[in-house]
Amino acid sequence: MGNPIIHFEVAGTDGPALEAFYAQLFEWKIDHRGEGDMQYGFISEGSAGAVGGGIRHEPTGSPEVVFYVEVEDVSIAIERAKALGATVRINPIDTGDVTFGMIRDPQGNSVGLIQRPEPPQHSSQEDNPVS
To answer: pLDDT tens digits, residue range 56-75?
Structure first.
């Protein structure tokens, strides 16, 4: 199976208005965070197995919809995308929770890439305690 889509964003010049629209249209609960240019609304619609999403305030950009694909390594995925004709929109950024980046496909569509952290490895000392 290929890499799954794990997140989406809807962006526009009036984030709070978009949040209100989608909350009313689809009965989504939206957790609004941030102010000014850093506004973001995390969508929680409550269905098990649903893809998570967000509403992004983009005051100077064009409205857009972006989907994010989970990859094993964002840097490698970006290099592979570039070899296939994509351009880099956002170089890898480590947030502490995930690493993400964004490309523009050969037609100009934005596609996000997300790498989840590796689970912690147990040391051999923990696996074989000395008595």
So the answer is: 988 887 899 999 999 999 99
> Residue type for 13, please?
T
Q: Please tell me the pTM assigned to this model.
A: 0.78
Q: Does domain 1-65 have CATH number 3.10.180.10?
A: yes
Q: DSSP secondary structure string, the chain?
A: --PPEEEEEEEES-HHHHHHHHHHHH--EEEEE--GGG-EEEEE---TTPPEEEEEE-TTS--EEEEEEE-S-HHHHHHHHHHTT-EEEEEEEE-SS-EEEEEE-TTS-EEEEEEPPPPPPPPHHHHS---
| C-alpha dist (Å) from residue 2 to 69, 71, 72, 111 | 10, 9, 11, 15
The pLDDT tens digits of the residues spanning 64-106 come to 999 999 999 999 999 999 999 999 999 999 999 999 999 999 9
Look up the CATH superfamily of 71-118.
Answer: 2,3-Dihydroxybiphenyl 1,2-Dioxygenase, domain 1 (3.10.180.10)
